Amino acid sequence: MKRASRGYTVIEVMMALAILAVGATGVIALQKVALIGNSNARIGDGARQVASTWAERLKTDALQWNDPLGISDIGETRWLAGSGTYDPVNPPGPAQWVLAPEVPGWSSPVADIHGADVPIADTTTNGVFCTHLQMARAVQKPLSLVGATHPIAVRALVRVIWRRDLAPITECRTTAPANIEENDARYGFYYLSTVVGQEEASN
Asked: What NCBIfam families does the database record attribute to this sequence (predicted)?
């Protein structure tokens, strides 16, 4: 005579469900960590792209800066014209950050998730990145004709900012760079330093 097959008890079923729930929770947590890591990596790549773009803009801008006959023409450049004079006693500090200039058709301080420029007046496109510049004319060269010196290089520091919650960075349009607190909990920062040399004039 065959014995009746024994079924699962309620306790066994509950234990199996509990083990399954613990395993599923671990998998979900790992997926969340992976998604956050991928998102941070994408944002970091975007910030590097924006910073590199601005560094290249400044280098290209230097092609228009050659001071023919010792007469400064840096004021005719698109972006380098905003650089100040370097003071070794009081080097540039956070208060001297400026919003990267907007030149219609050429540049904007605001960029989207792909690194493309977003005009400041465009409030319909979400700007994720905001770019600040800190530029100072550093290297001095003597002028034989005048007996004075003039700067032949600009030390530039590019700072790209984004909100860690990936919300549109409206602060870029409304808040002065000096007033944006470097709060790692709220913002992500990427810095790029470069030196832009003056083009020698061919006289």
From this structure: IV_pilin_GFxxxE (TIGR02532)
